[in-house]
Amino acid sequence: MLIIYGQGAVIAPCAENIPPEKIYIIGYTERSRIHERSRTIVKQAYEKAGIKYRFTPLPSLRSLEEANAGVIDGEVGRIPEAVKRYRNLVRVNVPIYYGTGYAFTTRNDIDVYQDDLLSKYHVGYRRGSLWAAIELRGREANIAKNHLTLFKMLSRGRFDIALAAPPFEKDVQRFIKESNPRVIRLEPAVRTSPVYHFVHRKNAAIIPKLEAALRALQKQKSTNP
Predict the structure, then answer these.
(1) What is the rounded distance in angstroms from the CA atom of residue 192 to the CA atom of residue 148?
(2) Which residues contact 114 (CB under 8 A, 6 or more apart)?
(3) Which superkingdom, per the lineage (predicted)?
(4) Other CB atoms within 10 Å distance of the CB of residue 121
(5) Which residues pair with 4 in a beta bridge?
(6) Using alpha carbons only, what angle is made at residue 72 by residues 68 and 76, rounded to the nearest 5 degrees?
(7) Which residues of the chain fall below pLDDT 70?
(8) Distance CA 64, CA 69 (A)
């Protein structure tokens, strides 16, 4: 099995190169329901593969940066475009799940999502949200440190549209429910994308085992829904 990363460099992982006592440190975003879901699935995959692991909570962007720098061994779950910006990350090529991102607004003159909204209005998103940055295509935007701050800024009129991917934390759900002016989720969704687990290139040897474990878990789930 060959794994291609970055600009075409190739790794040929071998299970024999996995250090038996190594504990792989995996970063995830603090207070993120999406990463809670990712963590559950990745945890099952490492255990099924017989690979030791430990999760470490980090701010969203820092988790990516430290995984890319090799400070930690991997990042729990990101969209496939992560490798375009973080060239040392290698994808475990079995989707963990599919995530959906939406546009939210408090404006009563916007009732449906269209692509041109992101160029017409001021936009905000949570720091480290790669899919939102990709959708904005280099346009300026307000960046919030977390989802609660993002929706508070939206409610206060700091910008017109917030890009975010549910499920949200309970305090965020509560704020949206009680918000005045009312926060509205626009349809259709901005994008739906597979989410993958990534490891630093130095850990490529564990990828075949993780992929086999994830496929087995998916098969088990489809057999026993």
Answers:
(1) 22
(2) none
(3) Bacteria
(4) 14
(5) 10
(6) 80
(7) 1-16, 224-225
(8) 9
Contact 150, 124 (CB under 8 A): yes
Which amino acid is present at 188?
A: P
Tell me the domains of the chain and their CATH numbers. Answer: 3-98+195-223 (3.40.190.10), 99-191 (3.40.190.10)
What the block records as the tokens of 70 is 């090799």
* Residue 213 identity: A
User: Could you read off the pLDDT of 4-62 as tens digits, one per residue?
Assistant: 344 333 344 455 577 778 999 999 998 888 899 999 999 999 999 999 999 999 998 99
Beta strands in 17-154 (DSSP E): 24-29, 53-58, 74-78, 89-105, 123-126, 142-144
Amino acid of residue 176: I
